[in-house]
Predict the 3D structure of the following.
Amino acid sequence: MIETRNRAVVANRAGIGLRHPHLPDFLAAPQPAAWLEVHSENYLASGGPRVAALERLRGDYPLSCHGVGLSLGSAGGLDRAHLARLRELYHRLEPALVSEHLAWSIAPDGAFLADLLPLPYTRETLDVVAANINLAQEAFGRRLLIENPSTYLQFSEADWDEADFLAELAHRTGCGLLLDVNNLYVSALNHGADPLAPLDRLPLAAVEEIHIAGHARVATAFGELLIDDHGSAVAGPVWQLLAAVLARTGPKPVLVEWDTHIPALPVLLAEAERADFYLSEVKHAPG
């Protein structure tokens, strides 16, 4: 059963990922960030200065917890110990939003692969992922948001494309969608597709959070490849795609991700301010 609790609400504003280099700035003085997102696995310890700092900040900034290690695509099911640790964390922090990736990262022998690996969008995969999502939602007592991945290959066997697979998943489990606009753009360009095309079939009514980030361009023997590295400012076409998404969803919480080559905090806050501009345009759009 999904529990009902009084949780802080993430406003339809731009937030930023809380990264360790910026922690002293947040602890020293209030920052113009509407909300913060953290990677769940960085806070699974029962104590220590990092956890203490987050517990202090959660009183001033609504939180979103973004899991990176649950491995929802694991055919052997979820790691119950890891699931229990996440449940304890979410019970303690009461984040407004909780999310995970549509991917797998744990080998059949239990080895953690430290990567978010792609899934074939087949009926068998749907059964596995849906069962794992239902188990996680039951354990957490809340709706789980599922993030669309960046992809660099396509499987020859598939019963759906990504947009229709996510729609089936949301229908079967009641999960929400964390729509990563940068991933949407990266995947489309890597596969020679139109990034706008999936918007007509994605379950946009289930979107509760949006991610934007920078990406890298890498030359390969087969042509240019876009890599979702979160290591630079958001690219112009991704901002344009964000505007197209918001025109369909209406205002939603938008997170600016910047995980590598992390800049000074004012640079990241400026990206969030730009995202807030796009959100304000939606609010004031006619009709």
User: Anything to note?
Assistant: Helices lie at 23-28, 49-57, 80-93, 123-140, 162-173, 181-190, 236-249, 265-283. The chain has eight helices and twelve strands. Residues 265-283 form the longest helix (19 residues).
